[in-house]
Amino acid sequence: MSRRSRWRWSNREDQTLNEHIRIGTAELIGQRLADFTETLDGAAIPAAVRARARHLILDAVGIALASTQYDFSHRTLAALREFGAGDGDVIGYPAARLPLRDAVMMNGFLVHGLDYDDTHTAGVIHATASCFPTALGMAAEVGASGTDLLTAYVAGMEVATRLGAVAKGGFHQVGFHPTGLVGAFGCTLVAGKLRGMTAKQLAHAQGIVLSMASGSLEFLQDGAWTKRMHPGWAGVAGITAAALARNGFLGPKAVYEGRFGLFPSHLGTYFDPANLALATEGLEEVWEVEKVAVKPLPACHFTHACADAAMALRAAHAIRPEQIAHVRALVPAEVVKTVCEPVHHKKKPQNSYDAQFSIPFAVASGLVHGRFGLAELEQDALNDATTLAVAHKVDYEPDPNSAFPKYYSGEVIVTLADGREVRHREHMNRGASDRPLTSADIIAKFEENASMALASAHVERIKQAVLGLDEGISARELSRLLAGRA
Q1: DSSP 432-457
Q2: Which end of the chain is less crowded, N or C, counting CB atoms within 10 A of the terminal residue's CB?
Q3: Whole-angstrom Cα distance, residue 78 to residue 108?
Q4: MmgE/PrpD C-terminal domain location, by residue (predicted)?
Q5: Fold of the domain built from segment(s) 301-426
């Protein structure tokens, strides 16, 4: 067969595939998301949504800067430098210039490094940690404006959060981390949007990234560092898939609902076809960005309600560690595998990452210290005999009144040595969409985190630049500023 004949056959095949874009009257999810991404106009995004998006980005930048002060970030940067230098900026590292994909990998790692980054509660996904580094790196690469960066970020967030919501928490039950797994699809559309790709190309790109998306929860066994790399890897996969599709590479069309599509293949018995509608429901009418929860505590969002409940009990009843006989923590049944098991590791965390995913340690920290912040994750705090003794008294039970996944509810019941029982419930976790941190709260959190790495004048410049993304700053200018090169 001649090259020209093969080209004609390929086009005929593609036309046939396109004729099957619709199954009955339902458009394939990938095509609908591609259409949404291609046509999304920044001017059509409501002002309140854009404002919230800017504050979510500001939160992410502050966390990334704080992460530069920890050993895990230095080791990761050293590894990525082995692949050579490039033009990509790394947040908080003025001397580090990496190739685009490696810079995105590193920036995603920094945003997610302290597990302090935002969470879309229904999707159970840290979407900003992948969508923002991808948007920052790609927008700087193509010379886009801050407005274009923000628009692409919003597009990716709207996609990733909805895809996560389809699973109803099921990915965690079978050992997949949606931040890496689902995040790759959002990043693909972020990269494609900034490359000016057509809806047809964007549809193929999602099919391509289906073979790249990944993220295992095995780190929960021993506090390994692998979760930190998931958002950046999602960005790497997304940029790669977009480039392949842009150059004519073909991907499968039934990306999400096909026989071996994302949801049937990764959810198994947790897959409910009725939930597929959530992937496209309300596009351009309901903005999921507004439902993203900003974390008030530097730990897995599943621990927050119980940690806050423990702090509230300590404050209300002046509880002393020696008074505590036993503690029951009520948690959503869906989060048990993540923050309650294996029990022996959760009651004696092996490192800070282990502690960030431990209900017993979070509750014990709240009861003993009245806090559960970055200081409580330092090695001395992890080895504190009093905290560990209380942690060993904490047992968990499935919460019969849980509102998961709308809220990450939690309740703590303390039995005192004199037989009294005191309890406190946080049905709606602090930071949830119906109990959000305010813009002022987010700014204060950013300033506290960023000040761990930068002088106050530089912190203020970054704050003004991020909150003014719609006011003329270019993506390259922002990228240099965040790296400390401007």
Answers
A1: STTSPPPHHHHHHHHHHHHTTTS-HH
A2: N
A3: 15
A4: 298-470
A5: 60s Ribosomal Protein L30; Chain: A; (3.30.1330)
